[in-house]
Design a protein that fits this description.
The protein is an all-alpha fold. It has six helices and no strands. Helix 1 crosses helix 6, helix 2 crosses helix 3 and helix 4 packs antiparallel against helix 5.
Length: about 140
Amino acid sequence: METQMWLTVMKWINILAALFIAAIGIYQIVFFFEFDNFDFLQIWSVFQPLYLILFAAMLLSLEFKPEPVLDQFQFLRSFLGRGVFYIFLGSIAGYQPDGSATKALGWIWGLVLWIVGMFYIVINFCAPDSLDGVKGGLTEKYGTT
């Protein structure tokens, strides 16, 4: 029973984090096109939110139909791989273009994703005995190692 509860908690953490990442990307796209002083040197900044939305879609599909995603992104099979990936996404989400009024929001977004990443890394190395069943359940679901 406890194992099923942990699996449900982990699934909801992944779903909420993916929705959070997608919301960050959408917000950044909307804000990017509202610049008063549009500078073509910052045109590359439009790709960052698109990548965030793409990665969020990938993480959401991992929860509902994992086989196609896990075939290409095998590092997501382990807690360590997911943790490092969330830290990477936090680093991307934390960047805001120069002149952006959302610099503080970028730090907060990045910090939240870093915390989720550190959660997965800690679970990978310091999982209590009660999480052994969770690792077994994730092995059945994702083929995790």
